[in-house]
Amino acid sequence: xxxxxxxxxxxxxxxxxxxxxxxxxxxxxxxxxxxxxxxxxxxxxxxxxxxxxxxxxxxxxxxxxxxxxxxxxxxxxxxxxxxxxxxxxxxxxxxxxxxxxxxxxxxxxxxxxxxxxxxxxxxxxxxxxxxxxxxxxxxxxxxxxxxxxxxxxxxxxxxxxxxxxxxxxxxxxxxxxxxxxxxxxxxxxxxxxxxxxxxxxxxxxxxxxxxxxxxxxxxxxxxxxxxxxxxxxxxxxxxxxxxxxxxxxxxxxxxxxxxxxxxxxxxxxxxxxxxxxxxxxxxxxxxxxxxxxxxxxxxxxxxxxxxxxxxxxxxxxxxxxxxxxxxxxxxxxxxxxxxxxxxxxxxxxxxxxxxxxxxxxxxxxxxxxxxxxxxxxxxxxxxxxxxxxxxxxxxxxxxxxxxxxxxxxxxxxxxxxxxxxxxxxxxxxxxxxxxxxxxxxxxxxxxxxxxxxxxxxxxxxxxxxxxxxxxxxxxx
Amino acid sequence: xxxxxxxxxxxxxxxxxxxxxxxxxxxxxxxxxxxxxxxxxxxxxxxxxxxxxxxxxxxxxxxxxxxxxxxxxxxxxxxxxxxxxxxxxxxxxxxxxxxxxxxxxxxxxxxxxxxxxxxxxxxxxxxxxxxxxxxxxxxxxxxxxxxxxxxxxxxxxxxxxxxxxxxxxxxxxxxxxxxxxxxxxxxxxxxxxxxxxxxxxxxxxxxxxxxxxxxxxxxxxxxxxxxxxxxxxxxxxxxxxxxxxxxxxxxxxxxxxxxxxxxxxxxxxxxxxxxxxxxxxxxxxxxxxxxxxxxxxxxxxxxxxxxxxxxxxxxxxxxxxxxxxxxxxxxxxxxxxxxxxxxxxxxxxxxxxxxxxxxxxxxxxxxxxxxxxxxxxxxxxxxxxxxxxxxxxxxxxxxxxxxxxxxxxxxxxxxxxxxxxxxxxxxxxxxxxxxxxxxxxxxxxxxxxxxxxxxxxxxxxxxxxxxxxxxxxxxx
Lengths: 476, 476
Fold this sequence. Notes:
The structure holds 2 protein chains of 2 kinds. Chain A is built from 16 helices and 13 strands. Chain A is globular. Chain A is of the alpha/beta class. In chain A, α5 packs parallel to α6 (178-184), α9 crosses α12 and α9 packs across α15. By secondary structure, chain B is of the alpha+beta class. Chain B has 3 domains: 10-290, no CATH class; 296-407, no CATH class; 416-475, Arc Repressor Mutant, subunit A (Orthogonal Bundle). Chain B is 40% helix and 19% strand. Chain B has helices spanning 65-77, 169-186, 219-238, 284-293, 298-309, 313-320, 323-332, 338-355, 367-378, 384-396, 401-407, 416-429, 431-438, 442-455, 462-475, and strands at 10-19, 81-82, 85-86, 89-92, 102-105, 112-118, 124-134, 138-142, 145-149, 156-162, 196-203, 211-217, 246-251, 256-262, 272-273, 280-281. Chain B is elongated, with a radius of gyration of 29 Å. Chains A and B meet through α9 and α10 of A and β15 of B.
């Protein structure tokens, strides 16, 4: 759809500025009911749109892969001079002095930034209900009583709800792209760790964080990935491997490709309706000529959750240390010594889940516990990568549901303990810990609630996921 | 340290922090020192800062390889084993001088381990580890306020830790001086920069209960603080009082240590890997490049001075310990008798500098001055006394010694007839003193020599004057 939009924009059939006005208007209307945005950036959007319109009149030889395309951005990604808080009150009023690398790249490609979207505070959650103090949880586009999923909930919700061409930049640490995409019936593509620069992303867990597209179609997600992937000299963990023409893999025949269906991802705790829908998809892929085999891969399912929560929380507990009301963000009345002041700022302004993760993570890295928790979790991650690599040496992708459940009601989420909530990440944490690319494709619905199928590929094999994902999508 | 097998009465270990003299900071492109190379030049607070060294949300570190080069040179000079990969960790604690409330440092695997440094006595002190870390910002106390200057934030530091093998405060000072000499030869250390150390010290009497003195500035202060602490611990022990393991501060003004915290409240930094930085492989190629660039070290110079120039080991030792002196000596020794050069550099030049409270990095005299001066001494064109006086003047304001001697007619009186006349004149004027000498009073001769020297304005050789006077006093 992006491709169609751009050719219309270039032919003059679509006026980029007018289109931008329309989507901004729509975004405001939707936002009132569903609460997807922390900020709608009218001025920035119109400024981007005018520039894109100028570009559209120039020689077509200049490639602008997102020319005039409206883009929403997860709040954790820095946009220069736009309040960036990762939905935490502790960063209230913080306006970055620089653009994240992904923002620079999108702007270079002619994107129109329409706003920043709601998320769980710093990404701590799977339902966007942990948005920080002063923020409200976004509502599922299919049922306002239900969750969008999280933590990139605002991205996924608006991508579904808008009737215009639109893509979104989400971020995943343990499943925060695939899971909300699944709950909102859109495509979520989480790339390989290191494929996209994290420069300008507010850190949750540095060894796990990945920025990636949420889109209405696999092809759109591939276009956005193509725009943001690549090496960044400001970000040491970004891969030197060159980016590919990902969009070129959308719609390619899948004949001869091989898929592994993970046995442990079905059965106990997995909604039967989801299971049935997933199998329909598998059969359709088979018809297209892609073979499948059921395999057992129990290690990530068994140890993924504890390893993920230990690693992500230890890293988060150090990342959040900088937020203390001293240099930026929320300040309080300066009283007492620095320790008392920092404690006051953090106590008043961090949300409950953020505090829980800080405590959990700090505990796991303290002398006496470090070896038993932090170091052991690192070892589990290393073993998990080996297990995945072994399986992926024989298959092009692994297939599971994205989530074991349909989008839950807010009233049901409230009843869950934190541990029960963490357990619902069971299918997404594995690929995330292993830094593997994965994609969630909307493959159907039950009682008008969307269902997502997840494909996981080997490191830097986003191309195969796009190829298989677009076949799965088109078979619906 | 707990397993260390102590034998000496006093056991001292040092933990030394030195600033690596790189152009830019350890993890960003900001200048690590003020523009212009003048010592002590200052460009105002918070002028060399960026999102990375300010710890802004979303900023990420990128390693400055030059700092690693410098640290590798040091590891090589200290004969350390070098880790095949460079890994950084986060040391987390809250303090207002910390931009991120964690410091990027090295923990499990330091860059260098198992090194040694040889003292003058031939005793070798074991180096436990050498690692790289970032400097915090500096705090400026102004009245009731405390201001933070981030110019220093992120400047590369090298930490050098010794085993507790130093057995006296004097030895600790010698160790520091030798380390500084090595740093100067390696050209990785700005000689005007402040060197800081933490020292742990324990005595046999107490059963080696360790006291750590934090943040002592300069090697003279280290000796002072340790001497004070030895006295304090011995006194406590003789009074039968128990000593608990503790961390102390050093009050230079009062010349005393003071309690900071006891072991029970020892901090736990909860180290984890910094996954914003990738592992850096220290390749064989890199190490061989470092070896190629390695300059001669003080020990090499000393051996060369003894074997090639035939000067005494003591002169060679003193001269080699000061890089500037050693370089000067090498150049002078090509033109002048090395024995004479060594004597003049080691004794006369050092005396004049001490008198003027000059440091070697502020030295105005260079080898050309010394060569001119000493060539006249060597050819006996001027007396040593004249040369000493010229040297004193040179230290304040350099000039050409040869021109100066010509202009002021300071050539030695080599005409014996002229000298004879003066000697006879002096004896005639001091008949009583002459008589005293004849009666056996040796001191009387010194007086007469002095009178002759005064009459010649020190231009006569005192040895010749001595002989002439003796001859006349016998015959007269």
